[in-house]
């Protein structure tokens, strides 16, 4: 229990001193915003260093190779998302109350995810000629091994983030992303010097494995034992299987919305269109991650103090609306100059797309909070319905608009889909997120 210490009143409490105290109070916002900020900072760092990675890639590889490689990594993330079984969100939700069962829960999730990710990655490689002929090079021995290892490794990478978040060790999420980015850039330089055709994919997978080893040593040797000591009376996760199964269905729709679109772009617009889309998406997706990361912190705090769910959710909405509005405005203004860092052709073809994606992050915040509140309340039918609607709208509109507007059509699709879902949620906000709830 914490005790609030008030500053003494009187003539010595100057206006400057009061401003200093208010600034200090803003920084000491409690674990909800603090952990959400650290996760957001981690995403921003990952996106910034990821963008630098692609800048280097565009200098060492031609546009077609960049486009194919980005589509391949999008496929890795899609298949990894399927293979994760959405267990990262399960760890975020149940690890805070798992106590002595936390380590066992994480390892079981790792094993299930690794097995499923291997199966879906191998199946994808067998079906490449039919579903993604532009990725035929992945069937060669070295790219194939990297592809399967990447799908399995990225699944564990995301799951360990869920475990660390549930343990309130978000600083390590920041550190592992920095490590991953640094090693990735170094390996890309080496692959570029060696002129490896699959160098982008190989460097990404190699860095992933390094980050996995370092982070899991900390997780199981330090973070989990400390959590067991702090919450040794916890009864362990309850009703986990039903929650995980229903939440997984919703997660599949979200994954399809995020990761099938790059394959649509590759198939309809070719390698160059994929390259122009990919770099705009890498930048804009950072704003989507702000909502996701703060939502993860919201779920952790809801597991620890469910009676404060509405209060915390409204705090997240207020805080992130200001943050995302400023960030979206910055991207809208700076879009052509940011994309020009990758080459003038990226600015020419991707500026409108980046601006539309940045604007769509604002209604996405409301959608994300609604989904997280429903997850905390175990209203999983609502969770599935919202994500299914997003998937259908994004994929349907993208497929229709790509031949008409090129890559800009994807931006129109995202903005329209988010607004169509966000507006009803905004109008019904007092119903699904009341300001006060009786505790009697």
TrEMBL record:
<dbReference type="InterPro" id="IPR050833">
    <property type="entry name" value="Poly_Biosynth_Transport"/>
</dbReference>
<feature type="transmembrane region" description="Helical">
    <location>
        <begin position="413"/>
        <end position="433"/>
    </location>
</feature>
<feature type="transmembrane region" description="Helical">
    <location>
        <begin position="240"/>
        <end position="258"/>
    </location>
</feature>
<keyword id="KW-0472">Membrane</keyword>
<feature type="transmembrane region" description="Helical">
    <location>
        <begin position="352"/>
        <end position="373"/>
    </location>
</feature>
<feature type="transmembrane region" description="Helical">
    <location>
        <begin position="69"/>
        <end position="88"/>
    </location>
</feature>
<feature type="transmembrane region" description="Helical">
    <location>
        <begin position="109"/>
        <end position="130"/>
    </location>
</feature>
<feature type="transmembrane region" description="Helical">
    <location>
        <begin position="201"/>
        <end position="220"/>
    </location>
</feature>
<protein>
    <submittedName>
        <fullName>Lipopolysaccharide biosynthesis protein</fullName>
    </submittedName>
</protein>
<keyword id="KW-1133">Transmembrane helix</keyword>
<feature type="transmembrane region" description="Helical">
    <location>
        <begin position="142"/>
        <end position="159"/>
    </location>
</feature>
<feature type="transmembrane region" description="Helical">
    <location>
        <begin position="171"/>
        <end position="195"/>
    </location>
</feature>
<feature type="transmembrane region" description="Helical">
    <location>
        <begin position="380"/>
        <end position="401"/>
    </location>
</feature>
<keyword id="KW-1003">Cell membrane</keyword>
<feature type="transmembrane region" description="Helical">
    <location>
        <begin position="321"/>
        <end position="340"/>
    </location>
</feature>
<feature type="transmembrane region" description="Helical">
    <location>
        <begin position="278"/>
        <end position="300"/>
    </location>
</feature>
<feature type="transmembrane region" description="Helical">
    <location>
        <begin position="38"/>
        <end position="57"/>
    </location>
</feature>
<keyword id="KW-0812">Transmembrane</keyword>
